[in-house]
Amino acid sequence: MSRALVITVSDRSARGERADANGPLLASLLTGLGLEVGEVVVVPDEVDAVQAALRDAVAQAYDLVLTTGGTGLSPRDVTPEATRPLLEREAPGLSEALRHRNADGVPTAILSRGVAGTIGRTLVVNLPGSSGGVRDGVGVLAPVLEHALAQLAGGGDHCA
Q1: Which domains does the chain have, with CATH numbers?
Q2: Any alpha helices (H) in 3-130, and if so which ranges?
Q3: Distance between terminal CA atoms of the chain?
Q4: What is the per-residue pLDDT for 142?
Q5: Whole-angstrom distance, CA of residue 114 vs CA of residue 83
Q6: Mean pLDDT of the chain, nearest integer
Q7: C-alpha span between 49 and 139 (Å, rounded)
Q8: Which residues in the chain come in under a pLDDT of 70?
Q9: What is the pLDDT of residues 2-25, one digit of tens each?
Q10: Pairing relation of β-strands 64-68 and 122-127?
């Protein structure tokens, strides 16, 4: 069974001023896909904090790490800037599909700056910090996730 970790990037949730709703929602959706999901990690919108959480997840050999939050245009939205330097290989098709999933219904979806790619054998994907963005993101990932994780593990159609 593949293992996943959810990282919520939110200043207010990290300070305890607002309950994290999107991280638990995302964890529940991933569990529904058959993944073993670790406890949701909450960090502030700070590059160092996001990078530390990502590095820790990779060190713990999670197969998938999804972040939620910090992908917009606000000055405090730094999740892509924190993630991109750690990626060994980007997966731009995932990021593009995530932005366009519900763009007709939610035109602001294209403002998300989230990135996706791999760090070692871990797939990392930035999702928006909204329940709709989380649901849409899982909808995009669900049909390709098993294959992507199998490839990263050295299996699937393209053995490493």
Answers
A1: 3-152 (3.40.980.10)
A2: 11-14, 22-32, 47-59, 79-83, 92-100
A3: 19
A4: 98
A5: 9
A6: 95
A7: 28
A8: 156-160
A9: 999 999 999 999 999 999 999 999
A10: parallel
Are 95 and 101 in contact by the 8 Å Cβ rule? The answer is no
In degrees rounded to 5, what are phi and psi of residue 73? -100, 0
Amino acid in position 64: L
Q: Which residues pair with 119 in a beta bridge?
A: 122
Sequence-separated (6 or more) residues with CB below 8 Å from residue 77: 45, 70, 71, 113
Q: Which helix (H) or strand (E) holds 118?
A: strand 116-119
Gap between the Cα atoms of 137 and 113, Å rounded: 13
Quick one: pLDDT at residue 158? 55
H-run or E-run covering 131? helix 131-152
Please provide residue 44's backbone torsions phi and psi, each rounded to the nearest 5 degrees.
-75, 165
C-beta separation of 70 from 47 below 8 A: no
